[in-house]
Amino acid sequence: MATRILVIDDEPVICRLIEYQLGGAGYQVTACQRGHDALLALADEAPDLILLDVMMPGISGWDLCRQIRASSTVPIIMLTAKHGDDDIVAGLTSGADDYVGKPFSADALIARIEAVLRRSRSANDRRRPTPAPAARVEPAPQPVAAAPAPGMAAPRPGRTQVRETVPAENRPRLGPLLAEARRQRRLSLHDAGEICGVRWEFLQAIEREQFSYVPHDELRHALKAYSAMLDVDLGPYLGRGGSRRRRVPGALPLTVGVVAVLAMVLVLVILML
Known about the structure:
CATH superfamily of the domain at 4-122: Response regulator
Structural class: alpha/beta
Low-confidence stretches: 149-153, 157-166, 240-252
CATH class of the domain at 4-122: Alpha Beta
């Protein structure tokens, strides 16, 4: 499931811009322009993180942050043009986890979001109680797997496997297959790009199968790095074991024999003249 982000800003243009930028990076974004609507969305959507503007009509972002913090530990990033030292101190003491000043770049905002989410997940892991050791249970005997057919490698355990014997028209599409594998690992495109060393925009284009967006000399590397990180078998899509042209045995000797016969005929014709 994609990371859910709630944007609270009274400027509709800012909300649409953030929805476009974060939605393109793989986040699920909900936007609100009023504090009351934001509190209802907080209960309904259960976001993983909140982007909160300070200058809000009716109730300031600082007061709204205090209300949210009174009942929730959801990470909050204050997002505002007021970024003096006093404003930053006021935001952090209200319960915010970070403070980003406007204007901001999409890459900088995404990096702040990921940093706050990492800290939040780490804190949740530390608070999680350690389960008591379970009683030892002897494992049931496992059935012996059948040996792979000659010429086929045995599949790796736990790997998303697409058998090469499946016709191309019946295989799942590569882009949706990679996107589903990423969502199962609860990774955003930005996270996945940092892990496999590929720009998240290229990963988005691969998931949407817009391969022309990725430079030709980088596409194969991006596909291999992304599929290896998600443990998806890329072989069937690269044509491994596919329709390579095979040389017909005896074709070369036959050609040489024909040339030799023609040469002999030519010599005989010259001698008869």
